[in-house]
Inverse folding.
């Protein structure tokens, strides 16, 4: 029997997204997959018809932290069951508030780890070998330089200090080991001995010990009240003057003003930042002018493959929640 | 005078863009009386008989028959780095001059450079940095994406010391590794990095997401990657060159990049170095170029210098030369 498409669509659960396409929206290439499982509603459509649409929304797919989840939104979505976050960081969400409405939350840890670890290694190598600087020299009209002045830092045999040894931090350790680096790590909890041995990583219970020994310090922590401004003046001064700071976690983990001062006065050698606070930085920010800083536009998971896997992981979690099954990557309020 | 007892060693120049590093002079001057090409040319009659070794840094000074004829007591040529394509080994041998290079110390840094270029190119790092610092940037668009390295296929052309170190690193990124080499490696070496031998380079080119050139420049590898090879590559593939510019047909590469026959290129080496300032490669958005810095770290350059000094001293003492290169 012929079934009109509109009836078929309405049987699918309603999924709220911020927008499709444009500079911040759901990627067009993901839409067919999402539409297989859901009736997609944008915030614009919701706001035009709050009462009718609000009742139908059972799930939200957060794409780059949007839409903003506040009390008002939660109150206007009485049948909301689950919020799936693109990516792994949840610091933009009030987990307790959401839980108080009986809404489950999920992130996408599997999809992000390898790609984000790759970003960390890309930044480490680019900074060590001064890649941006020397590329600019190579294409400059004058090529006015002395090789002795553009020598990089040898990575093999150098010490990498990983702060935050979760899934992503561990994948970085696996990669760094292949580069013949010595690996130190600092984490809320110590990893199992076999995990440490597999990558040759040494636990530093005190962050100070890691900072004093590392040639490269890589930040891979979640942003929490405890990690906010974790790296400040004190920590930077503990680092070697030949050391490089790499941040692939959140801008707010670093005291940015202290970092600028440290870079300007040679307290540390260089920094490579995939994340800042805010993103992008104001165009007159000191970090943009420093020769010894590489800044990238939150590359983190920005590949075709990873972004698609994130959407797949989100859909998996949403469908599980709507079917009353355990979520593969549920995030509980602490 | 003490310095007159030290052996006379010819160098191209000191300081400046590509000269012997000022930082290295202390070490070298304790062992040798350094003579620059300029000083030599100004005083050939006195100096030509005294020079017993040449310290070749950044492929300079160039050694031709004329120079060899005017240095009757030349015994050793020590060359920095592993490549010796800039030296005529047969010619040098015919003058009884021994040659050394520094093959081992450069391997890790050069392999690291290959990985750095692959990661930077795939994730659009240089472009991204420009966006991040540009005065015109107001936001970072979320549909601005790069290409995945983890799990992708890497084809290594030339699996010597450097190529193998690249494979060791790539394995940690869960990459599938193919390689093409004059000879197949031992089974244990292959399994240690999970590398699959491609006897025909075509097989490697057709399957790889990243093609990394780590071969020695020889008459056989000259322009090994030309129009035909580039067309065999995937249109989504990236070419990375850390070997020698001449292994690639550069004009064919420009065309391939302009016509999207391949996706991108990342080149630590070109021909010539540097490229003329109006060369199309300098303007292509999908190209990263670095100024032949494969082994350019402070530590490695220091060790290279020490090794060259050691080779010269051994050669002048009539002892076996460490890292001798035979014709």
């Amino acid at each position: 029997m012929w079934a009109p498409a509109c009836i078929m669509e309405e049987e699918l659960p309603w999924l709220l997204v911020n927008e499709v396409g444009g500079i911040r929206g759901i990627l067009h290439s993901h839409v067919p997959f999402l539409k297989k499982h859901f009736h997609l509603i944008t915030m614009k459509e919701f706001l035009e018809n709050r009462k009718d649409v609000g009742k139908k929304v059972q799930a939200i797919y957060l794409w780059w932290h949007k839409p903003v989840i506040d009390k008002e939104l939660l109150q206007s979505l009485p049948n909301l069951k689950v919020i799936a976050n693109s990516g792994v960081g949840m610091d933009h969400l009030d987990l307790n508030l959401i839980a108080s409405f009986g809404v489950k939350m999920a992130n996408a840890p599997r999809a992000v780890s390898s790609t984000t670890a790759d970003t960390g290694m890309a930044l480490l190598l680019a900074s060590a070998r001064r890649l941006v600087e020397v590329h600019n020299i190579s294409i400059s009209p004058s090529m006015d330089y002395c090789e002795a002045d553009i020598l990089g830092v040898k990575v093999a045999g150098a010490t990498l200090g990983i702060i935050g040894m979760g899934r992503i931090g561990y994948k970085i350790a696996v990669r760094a080991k292949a580069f013949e680096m010595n690996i130190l790590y600092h984490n809320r909890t110590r990893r199992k001995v076999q995990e440490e041995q597999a990558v040759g990583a040494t636990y530093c219970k005190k962050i100070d010990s890691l900072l004093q020994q590392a040639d490269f310090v890589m930040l891979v922590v979640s942003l929490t009240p405890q990690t906010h401004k974790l790296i400040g003046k004190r920590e930077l001064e503990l680092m070697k003057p030949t050391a490089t700071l790499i941040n692939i976690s959140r801008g707010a983990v670093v005291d940015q003003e202290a970092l600028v001062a440290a870079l300007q006065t040679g307290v540390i050698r260089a920094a490579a930042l995939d994340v800042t606070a805010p993103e992008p930085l104001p165009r007159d920010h000191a970090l943009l002018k420093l020769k010894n800083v590489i800044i990238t536009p939150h590359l983190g998971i920005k590949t075709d493959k990873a972004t698609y896997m994130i959407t797949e992981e989100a859909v998996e979690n949403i469908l599980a929640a709507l079917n009353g099954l355990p979520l593969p990557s549920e995030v509980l309020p602490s | 005078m003490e310095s007159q007892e030290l052996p006379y060693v010819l160098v191209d120049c000191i300081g400046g863009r590509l000269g012997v590093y000022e930082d290295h002079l202390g070490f070298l001057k304790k062992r040798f009386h350094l003579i620059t090409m300029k000083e030599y040319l100004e005083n050939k009659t006195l100096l030509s008989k005294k020079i017993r070794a040449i310290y070749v840094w950044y492929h300079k000074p160039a050694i031709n028959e004329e120079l060899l004829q005017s240095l009757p007591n030349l015994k050793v040529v020590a060359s920095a780095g592993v490549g010796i394509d800039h030296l005529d080994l047969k010619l040098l041998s015919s003058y009884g001059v021994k040659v050394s290079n520094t093959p081992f110390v450069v391997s890790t840094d050069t392999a690291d450079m290959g990985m750095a270029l692959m990661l930077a190119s795939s994730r659009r790092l240089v472009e991204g940095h420009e966006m991040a610092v540009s005065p015109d940037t107001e936001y970072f668009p979320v549909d601005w994406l790069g290409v995945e390295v983890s799990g992708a296929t890497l084809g290594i052309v030339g699996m010597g010391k450097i190529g193998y170190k690249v494979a060791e690193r790539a394995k940690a990124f869960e990459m599938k590794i193919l390689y093409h080499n004059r000879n197949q490696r031992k089974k244990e070496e292959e399994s240690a990095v999970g590398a699959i031998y491609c006897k025909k380079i075509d097989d490697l080119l057709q399957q790889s997401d990243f093609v990394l050139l780590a071969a020695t420049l020889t008459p056989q590898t000259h322009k090994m990657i030309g129009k035909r090879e580039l067309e065999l590559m995937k249109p989504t593939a990236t070419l990375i060159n850390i070997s020698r510019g001449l292994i690639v047909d550069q004009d064919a590469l420009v065309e391939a990049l302009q016509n999207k026959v391949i996706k991108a290129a990342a080149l630590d080496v070109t021909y010539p170095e540097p490229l003329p300032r109006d060369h199309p490669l300098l303007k292509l958005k999908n190209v990263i170029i670095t100024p032949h810095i494969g082994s350019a770290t402070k530590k490695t350059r220091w060790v290279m210098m020490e090794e060259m000094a050691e080779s010269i001293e051994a050669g002048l003492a009539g002892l076996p030369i460490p890292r001798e290169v035979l014709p």
About this structure: The longest strand of chain A covers residues 57-62.
